[in-house]
Amino acid sequence: QLIFLNGEFVPKHEAKVSVYDHGYLYGDGVFEGIRVYSGNVFRLKEHLVRLFESAKSILLEIPYTLEELTELVAETIRKNQLSDGYIRLVVSRGTGNLGLDPASCPVATVVIIAEQLALFPAEFYETGIPIITVATRRNRPDVLSPQVKSLNYLNNILVKIEAKLAGVLEALMLNEQGYVAEGSGDNVFLVKGNKLITPPSSAGALEGITRNAIMEIGKKFGYDVREELFTRHDVYVADEVFLTGTAAEVIAVTKVDGRTIGDGKPGAHTNRLLEEFRKLVVEDGEK
Ligand code: PLP
Fold this sequence. Notes:
Number of helices: 8
Oligomer: single chain
Mean pLDDT: 96
Keywords: Amino-acid biosynthesis, Aminotransferase, Branched-chain amino acid biosynthesis, Pyridoxal phosphate, Transferase
Shape: globular
Bound molecules: pyridoxal-5'-phosphate
CATH topology of the largest domain: D-amino Acid Aminotransferase, Chain A, domain 2
InterPro entries: Aminotrans_IV (IPR001544), Aminotrans_IV_CS (IPR018300), Aminotransferase-like (IPR036038), B_amino_transI (IPR005785), BCAT-like_C (IPR043132), BCAT-like_N (IPR043131), Class-IV_PLP-Dep_Aminotrnsfr (IPR050571)
Structural class: alpha+beta
CATH superfamily of the largest domain: D-amino Acid Aminotransferase, subunit A, domain 2
Number of strands: 15
Distance between the termini: 29 Å
Largest sheet: 9 strands, mixed
Low-confidence stretches: none
Family: Belongs to the class-IV pyridoxal-phosphate-dependent aminotransferase family.
Function: Acts on leucine, isoleucine and valine.
Strand content: 25-35%
CATH architecture of the largest domain: Alpha-Beta Barrel
Protein name: Branched-chain-amino-acid aminotransferase
């Protein structure tokens, strides 16, 4: 496996970053997780635009243009002969001294990893997953926007830890007002009648690329697609609940905090949206 690291392709075991990199010292950087389906990168442009916007927001200069990064991602895929997999693109502040000031880091560190995706076991798509809500809150948008996909994922990691301690795989984070924001690394949707509802970005939800695709599909198939605030109660009484994300795609939630959703099985709407999403990832590649 070859990793792109600062302008070179190096074998996996040689792909090393300095302990003085501010990405390591302070979580100072941004990243993207991207899928490759049958050799096509799903919505690469959207991922790169989000990466550049995240970087701009934290005054991090990426030493490549969007076009150059597009080519580098393609080259990383080619070099690893990957047709279906996952790409992790990381840009950290770079190597500096122990101070916080990014001025000591003259160049950003850029890493592109392309590898096989460790998918959720297929049975989870058949059975759905139970989840909980946890105490960890989404960071406030006025402090650090949830749109910045930064290397500071402590809240998200705590959500994951709390979920696992409770014996489930995923959990929902609320925002400071107590409205539902999102999962540790996934967006959340409710189906209620003909409504397909997901929290607005102002609630603390990342504008996920899978989320966008599901909203498009939902509109196309006549759902009343809404970005609306909702509470845990709304989740408990929804007809269907599912999570979306680059790695998870669309995964049904069958229990939330012990409340069974619908009849406790992945619902017909969720299954249909997953099916349409899987068609879209192929069609997008053919364009
Ligand atoms: N929310 C968070 C916090 C994430 O890290 C991710 C993953 O990127 C998502 C949601 C889902 O976004 P996407 O569909 O772009 O992968």
